[in-house]
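Exercise: predict the fold of this chain.
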Amino acid sequence: MPFTEPLTSSGPGPAGNGWTSQRTAWLLFGPPAFMVAVRWLLQLMDDRQSAVPALPLVPVSTTAGTLDLLWPVALALALLVASGLVVYRLGWRRVMPVMGAAWLLLWLAGSGAQVERHINRQGLVWQGMAAAAPAPQAWARARVVTAQFKPASLRSLGGTELVLQIDGLAVPHRLLMGDAGAALLKPGDMLALQLVPGRFSGLFVTRWQAAPPASPLKPIP
């Protein structure tokens, strides 16, 4: 009986394919899982505090015309077309490492933004109407422009969303409050807000009253 050698393959075997598939899976699902873990950890730290983090004031975006509404869509389409042309000219093998790096940096940037947002409001607490009134200099007058109920979602617990025109600030600001008293507010009502700046940027509400104090209010710098 003639001797025959066992057939062997010089190409990548099942182990090599398995390693490649595992690396791809880690790249696809690892960064999103890391971002979810960071968010869960930051939420756990907030829940362990004795007070709720202060409520952020968000400027209401204003549009000057149709171009301001269409430029994000046009930019997204341009990036999509440019990406398709690059893939067509260079091929998937050359583009995949760059796309993988961009995918990784995107989720890392999102995780970093969550950490920055957490540190920005660190030490600021929401004390509500029941807290003792601070010095009058800490208050700013605000007028309710709109008030509407916002249901709970994955991003927030919901509550009453107010659009406020605050003395000293050029543009209206949006404020979401879960306080039961906020549900009674209507357009035209005047409020007094105690505002504190974040560590890096932005303004946060730590107290509010349904009527401004009698003494003069200090304008927002």
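Check your answer against the key: The longest strand covers residues 139-150.
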